[in-house]
Amino acid sequence: MHIRQATYKDIDRLMIIFDNAKAIMRNSGNMEQWNGSYPTVEVVRGDIDAGNCFVLCDGEIAGSNQHECEEIIGTMALIPGPDPTYGYIEGQWDNAEPYYVIHRIATYAPGRNTAVKMFDWAFSHIEGNGCRTIRIDTHKDNCIMKHILTGYGFNMCGVIYLADGAARDAYQLTKE
Asked: Which of 157, 112, 130, 93 is nearest to 1 (CA)?
């Protein structure tokens, strides 16, 4: 498995992954997060244009010079902070160090440790940029993601509010 930047050619697959992630959320009792068409193709295109959308691939296409993959099984947007929605928190961030944010993390199917692999890669990637902190948020009903985050070592710091006013549980991890 390896991670690479997403391209426009990946968008159809990413939308399938987001739809599967929504179904997983609904089946686990999270009925409110990512309702409707969010994340939209336009949001994903924006992440790709900014160089912030990454995909986790399972296998490579033989003979490919493009580092293409046989199957995309996960995706995330890894964005350098500061993030405006993290400017106010009910609670307290662990520290005020520079950070990256993970948004729109999703996997095609549970059970392959894809989120952990993406977190591992994200931390090694940001260390190369002189950073060691990642912040992430999720809906209060996203029990699966909350379990993954705390299991990985993220600390629940409080509640932040999205631009539309929706509350999200906010997490942070600083690697030593």
From this structure: 112
